[in-house]
Amino acid sequence: MHQTFDAALEINLLHANQQGADHNREHFDQWGITCFNIMSSPGAGKTVLLEKTLSHLSQELKIAVIEGDMTTELDADRLRLYGVPVIAINTGRSCHLDSKMVAGGIHQLAHQYNPSEFDLVLVENVGNLVCPAEFEVGEHAKIALLSVTEGEDKPLKYPIMFQQADCLLITKIDLAPYLDTDIERIKNNVRQMNPHVTIIPISAKTGEGLNVWFDWVRAQIHQSLVISH
């Protein structure tokens, strides 16, 4: 059976992207950097999560951010206030970052700083619940966010991101009492897609769950250091 032209093109694009992602990861491993790819639909709370993470962890970890957005540097400017390097990437009409775009960010980072001094690179992907999960960028872990305002059925309707995630943050849980949303049902739906994913409910507003997230970040960095040695 012959593949359609579109199917063959998609396979070729994903293969080329994977080669680039593997190359990016080689750079991160060489420098001793752990990289997270942070993904969600628009408005789920990626940028505020990064703000909380930088505020809490940037004193003990050397962190840089690669910030993906379609047209602006609004989120990048927010994160620059925390005194960490932020490389902004505008994707234009593309609904996700790919490994080539992130390679450009890596080269900028390496040109401006000594990359071996960094412990963690946080890649904030474009807000989209589908495309970012299909294009690796060289990350060591994929972090997906799902807010309680999006409903319980999203893991079933948009399975790829949840199947790919190493950690899922259920965000805005302080709003759950005001919504007809069952957090346990969200967890169960996610487990159907990915039985082994770490699930952490959080509220950036109240701080609930954030320490669990920070500990998970620390554990991933420690694990990467053990593997590299």
Automatic annotation (TrEMBL):
Keywords: GTP-binding, Hydrolase, Metal-binding, Nickel, Nucleotide-binding, Zinc. Belongs to the SIMIBI class G3E GTPase family. HypB/HupM subfamily. Residues 37-200 form the CobW/HypB/UreG nucleotide-binding domain. This is Hydrogenase accessory protein HypB. InterPro entries: CobW/HypB/UreG_nucleotide-bd (IPR003495), Hyd_mat_HypB (IPR004392), P-loop_NTPase (IPR027417). Gene3D superfamilies: P-loop containing nucleotide triphosphate hydrolases. It comes from Gloeothece verrucosa (strain PCC 7822). GO terms for biological process: protein maturation.
